[in-house]
């Protein structure tokens, strides 16, 4: 069976060496030595000032909103994983959707300003499939209207824009280190904070809001990463170059073979590509279903990321309708991409797609 992705596991002996270390010192969670080591290595590797590791990418978003004390309405993208929207709703924030650009699949900055009201406190865009948003335009709009910016950068691990890591844009960016992501810690995530003065508060928030033995200044939660997860991250970081090279080869193959047959995501020309996903856009949903069925019949399971469009979620009131996002979400399919996807399988995937679309 071939899925859209397959969790990358490092050599077992390397992971076990870290596990032995954990057994020796008996420190399994609460900002342990491996979490501290991974934070340090990631800050250096990514070129970011402040990074806080947390238990998953969803809680990373929630901590970001709470750190910035967001209230009222937040402008966000309807074309994302459901956690982008649900994390707002669970924090009593109302998602105000802003339709996407049909080529980049990212929130279209041209649609932001008309959605700003006195109740708007922030913009929460998504770097969809690791493709950076128009960060300069978004930041300009935010400054003009005194809004905060929280980027859901769950897909944008190790992506640079104009020579700097894209995580350095906005007030806060969040990452997901779930097992299905490019870089993972089994479950996990991170918060990247650009304003030094907010770091302490975020650190309290991930630990129940506790400052010290006698002071609990904030309403916090439990969002801590544990040592076994950090150990996985340390192993993955050592293998990242290898992982990215393999993914790049697959990307190049798909691009060359499917060019002119399907539509690709338009990538930001000033950014690097981390090859985290390989989305294709079909002409119609009917065509998509045909391709999906043909692949499924040979035990190949691409995924409909992102479907459905988040403006169709039943729990969002008032109802909003984002035609571009709805249209793209019915026609997009993410193809399998992971380091040990075999060449024969890759060839077969392309053959099946071509034969479906040539009929
Ligand atoms: C994966 C993902 C999340 C959630 O991260 P988890 O670590 O699974 O909680 C949030 N936003 C986007 C865009 C994602 O792809």
UniProtKB/TrEMBL annotation:
Keywords: Aminotransferase, Pyridoxal phosphate, Transferase
TM segment ranges: none
InterPro entries: DegT/StrS_aminotransferase, PyrdxlP-dep_Trfase, PyrdxlP-dep_Trfase_major
Molecular-function GO terms, alphabetical: transaminase activity
PANTHER family assigned: PROTEIN RV3402C, TRANSAMINASE
Family named by the database record: Belongs to the DegT/DnrJ/EryC1 family.
Name listed for the protein in its UniProt record: Aminotransferase DegT
Organism name: Thiomicrorhabdus immobilis
């Amino acid at each position: 069976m071939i899925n859209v992705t397959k969790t990358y596991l490092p050599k077992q002996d390397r992971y076990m060496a870290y596990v032995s270390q954990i057994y020796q010192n008996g420190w399994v969670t609460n900002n342990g030595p491996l979490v501290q080591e991974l934070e340090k290595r990631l800050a250096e590797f990514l070129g970011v000032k402040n990074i806080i590791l947390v238990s998953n990418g969803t809680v990373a978003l929630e901590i970001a909103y709470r750190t910035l004390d967001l209230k009222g309405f937040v402008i966000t993208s309807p074309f994302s994983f459901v956690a982008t929207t649900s994390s707002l709703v669970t924090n009593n924030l109302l998602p105000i959707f802003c339709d996407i650009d049909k080529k980049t699949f990212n929130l279209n900055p041209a649609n932001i300003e008309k959605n700003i009201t006195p109740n708007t406190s922030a913009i929460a865009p998504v770097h969809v499939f690791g493709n950076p948003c128009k960060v300069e335009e978004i930041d300009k709009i935010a400054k003009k209207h005194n809004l905060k910016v929280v980027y859901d950068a769950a897909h944008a691990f190790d992506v640079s824009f104009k020579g700097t890591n894209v995580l350095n844009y906005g007030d806060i960016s969040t990452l997901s280190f779930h097992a299905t992501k490019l870089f993972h810690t089994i479950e996990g995530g991170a918060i990247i904070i650009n304003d030094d003065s907010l770091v302490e508060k975020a650190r309290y928030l991930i630990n129940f809001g506790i400052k010290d033995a006698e002071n609990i200044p904030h309403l916090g939660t439990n969002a801590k990463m544990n040592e076994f997860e950090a150990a996985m991250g340390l192993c993955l970081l050592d293998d990242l170059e290898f992982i990215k090279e393999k993914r790049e080869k697959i990307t190049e193959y798909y691009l060359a073979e499917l060019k002119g047959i399907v539509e690709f995501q338009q990538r930001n020309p000033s950014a690097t590509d981390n090859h985290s996903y390989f989305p294709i856009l079909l002409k119609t949903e009917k065509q998509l279903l045909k391709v999906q069925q043909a692949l499924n019949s040979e035990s190949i399971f691409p995924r409909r990321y992102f479907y459905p469009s988040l403006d169709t979620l039943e729990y969002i009131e008032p109802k909003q309708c984002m035609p571009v996002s709805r249209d793209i979400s019915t026609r997009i399919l993410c193809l399998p991409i992971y380091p040990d996807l075999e060449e024969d399988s890759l060839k077969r995937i392309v053959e099946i797609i071509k034969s479906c679309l040539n009929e």
